[in-house]
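Lab notebook, bench 4. The sequencing result for the construct came back, and we need a structural model before the next group meeting so we can plan mutations. Quick request posted to the team channel:

Model the 3D structure of this chain.
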Amino acid sequence: MTRRAIFPGTFDPFTIGHYSVVLRGLGLFDEIIIAIGTNQTKATMFPLQTRMTMARQAFDGEPHVRVEAYNCMTVDFARQVDAKHILRGIRSVSDFEYEHAIADANCKLTGIETVILFTEYEYSYISSTVVRDLIHYGKDISAFLPPKVVYPLPVDVLK
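Done. Here's the predicted structure in C-alpha cell form:
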C-alpha cells in the first residue's frame, strides 16, 4: 500500500519553505502530491498554470512528487487521489492554531489525518506574501525559491 499525502496550498508562489516541507515529507510518505488549490476568495499574483510550473520545476526528476490542481474541498481532493494524509508546514503558533482546527474538522469529516512539520528555522520568516512583496518592489527573490525554480519565468509560462 502506497503511503500517499497531499500538500495543499495556493503556492503563490512556491517558496523554498514549501520545498523544504515536501523534501522532509518524502521521509514519511512514498508519494506527495503538491495540490494547488483554486480559492475564489484569494486573488493571486500568478495564474494557476504558472504556480504549477514553479512547483514542477522544483521537483523535476523526482518520481515521488507530482503536482496537480484542484477546485473542491481539500479532503474531497485527498479522497479523489486516494491520499490518507494531508501534509502541512507551520511557522508560528498562530499557524498551528489555524491548522489544528482544520485538521480536527478534516479528520472528523473523513478520517484523513494531518501531519504537521515545523518549518526549519532558516525558512521561518519566508512566506508567499513576503515573496510577492519583494517581487512588487523589484527585488531579487532567488534566495526565497527552490534551487531549480527559475524566476522570472519565461513569458510563455506567465500566461
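The chain has a mean pLDDT of 93.
Will bring this to the meeting.
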